[in-house]
Write a structure and sequence with these properties.
27% strand; six-stranded antiparallel sheet; alpha+beta; Double-stranded beta-helix; globular; four-stranded antiparallel sheet
């Protein structure tokens, strides 16, 4: 389909029900040329409400917010252009994570991502893991193993991150389905949304917490049909729900003649 044909479908009767039922959509080959930020933004509006500057002001410390959005008005569209030279992770491998959970205000918003340019070398592939579907397939014996687990989260983007205690399982507010509260794991100042794990009120060390999270991911990704791996081509669009999907990215191999650029929009359902 062309871009215009995609835009002709109604949001309430077609796009939103489709997204709610699938929760990760891949759109390919809709245009022979690069979509403008405005075109990409208008497509994502079919699925939900894109974040504006006011939402990002909650996310970032004031100095970083000013650098990123200082000249924008609150109503301006926010389309982030992610390149190796303007992100803290560069071209390195990214482990499993869900984007920008903010325990104090709002958790796990959705994302639309658009590949504006990718090196033609099959690097930088992205894999999604569906935590809800994987948890459904766990045996009762496997599930009871985690009855006494608590997850202590912290907001790594804040200057003074606050640790907040959560139960191991979370319930999807849209569907009532259950999934583990898993994300990246890292100490203060080093990245990761999980600060540490506690089991029966026993605090695991950072190394023990990382090991716990990695073993849990290994259990879930070995359940049937829980993984989707995407090898990027220019023009690909993926729209996904962060609530129960975590994703990881392979390392990117690029040179100055073909820099990778991924465009991104954050939105609420």
């Amino acid at each position: 389909m062309s871009y215009d044909e995609l835009m002709s479908f109604d949001a309430e009767t077609f796009w939103k029900p489709l997204f709610y039922s699938q929760n990760l959509l891949v759109i390919k080959d809709i245009s022979s040329s690069l979509l403008s930020d405005s075109e990409f933004f208008n497509l994502i509006r079919k699925f939900g409400k894109p974040w504006n500057c006011d939402k990002f002001k909650i996310l970032y410390p004031q100095d970083r917010y000013s650098r990123l959005f200082g000249n924008k008005k609150p109503e301006d569209m926010i389309v982030s252009h992610l390149r190796s030279n303007n992100t803290p992770w560069g071209n390195n491998i990214l482990g499993y994570h869900a984007d920008i959970p903010l325990p104090q205000e709002v958790e796990y918003p959705c994302r639309g991502i658009y590949m504006a340019n990718t090196p033609n070398n099959d690097t930088g592939s992205t894999t999604w893991l569906n935590l809800e579907y994987a948890w459904e397939q766990c045996t009762e014996e496997e599930k009871t193993t985690y009855n006494s687990v608590e997850v202590i989260m912290h907001d790594i983007l804040k200057t003074d991150p606050v640790q907040i205690r959560f139960p191991f399982l979370k319930t999807n507010p849209k569907t009532g389905k259950v999934s583990p509260r898993l994300n990246g794991c890292g100490p203060e100042g080093a990245g990761g949304w999980i600060h540490h794990i506690e089991i029966d009120s026993c605090i695991l060390t950072f190394t023990e917490s990382v090991d716990f999270v990695e073993k849990m991911y290994n259990l879930l990704e070995n359940k049937k049909d829980t993984l989707y791996k995407h090898n990027w081509e220019n023009g690909d669009i993926i729209i996904f729900n962060n609530w129960f999907n975590v994703h990881m990215r392979d390392a990117v191999d690029e040179d100055s003649s073909c820099p990778r650029e991924l465009r991104q929009i954050t939105f609420d359902l």
